[in-house]
Amino acid sequence: MNPVAELRSFLRASLVTPVPRNQRDAAHVLRRRRVVSTLTLLVGAGLLWWSLRLPPGDPLFYLGTALLAVIWVVGGFLSGPLYLGRAHTRSGTSYARPVIQSFSLGALLLAIYLGGAFLVAQVPVLRGPVDDLLDHARYGSLPLVLVLTMVNGVAEEIFFRGALYAAIPQRWTVAATTVVYALTTVVVGVPLLVLAAASLGLVCGLQRRVTGGVLGPIITHITWSTGMLLLLPPLLNLLE
User: Fold this and answer.
1) Which of 59, 125, 193, 237 is most buried, judging by how many CB atoms fall within 10 Å of its CB?
2) Computed from CA positions of residues 22, 28, 34, 40, in that sequence, does the dihedral angle turn out positive or negative?
3) Distance CA 168, CA 157 (A)
4) How many other CB atoms are found less than 10 A from the CB of residue 32?
5) Where are the alpha helices (DSSP H) in the chain?
6) SS3 assignment, position 88
7) How far is Cα 185 from Cα 193, in angstroms, rounded to an integer?
8) Could you report how far apart the first and last alpha carbons of the chain are, in Å?
9) Number of domains composing the chain
10) Looking at the domain assignment, is residue 20 inside a domain?
């Protein structure tokens, strides 16, 4: 099989063709999901805005980011049952936990964004806000920021692709969770962060639809976000 056909087959299996499953919430569970998700979203969005507007190196940034992860996780689990999900295997005749598949998706998305860094580096109006955001890693504790990035990646998927996804009517799940996830970053004032949230949210939403669970989106999210944190700053420095 040629590389283009291989990539097409991979994307179809990971983002298009759902794995058979039977997960339906009772009416009272669905109502609880919607109430809990709405309250969690309001609190979480406000805290995200506050934490990302703190100056780089401010200890309150770490506290706020950790608290945000707690809010997403608590809201996710309070809303109702969550599922890990299953993915298509390469043979197409069985199913497995979406580990390698999700890591590959995250790496592919990371490669696309690192390629886009060559454009961002040449446009000051785009690079400035990105540098301001990355200053939390440059001037703060990188190991701590890395841990918080990973923890928040897990927490966000538990909420957005877990609780919130399950609270939305099926026909709108991917579109609605993608838009809401992107809108939570608008208040930060970094256009490229909104674009990143939209594209990541779309990929993770499609994964959630295919696999029926949060494990795939979590792995994809962590792969992309940690890669961006570790690789984007040195790449932008090289492109100065």
Assistant:
1) 193
2) negative
3) 15
4) 17
5) 3-15, 27-52, 59-79, 100-120, 124-138, 142-158, 165-167, 173-183, 191-211, 215-238
6) strand
7) 7
8) 40
9) 1
10) no
Contact indicator for 61, 54 with CB cutoff of 8 Å: yes
In a domain, 11, yes or no: no
Q: How many CB atoms lie within 10 A of CB 233?
A: 18
pLDDT tens for the 240 residues of the chain, in order = 688 888 899 999 999 999 998 778 888 889 999 999 999 999 998 898 888 777 777 788 889 989 999 999 999 999 999 999 999 988 777 899 999 999 999 999 999 999 988 887 777 766 777 777 777 666 677 888 899 999 999 999 999 999 999 999 989 999 999 999 999 888 777 788 888 999 999 999 999 999 999 999 999 999 999 999 999 888 888 876
Residue 140, amino acid: G
Give the Cα separation of 135 and 222 in Å (integer): 20
Q: Given phi > 0 = left and psi -120 to 50 = alpha, else beta, which region is 94?
A: beta
Beta bridge partners of 207: none
Q: What is the residue type of 31? A: R
Nearest to 109 by CA among 220, 239, 238: 220
Residue 192 forms part of a structural domain? yes
Q: Which domain holds residue 78?
A: 26-86+94-238
Give 95's DSSP letter: E
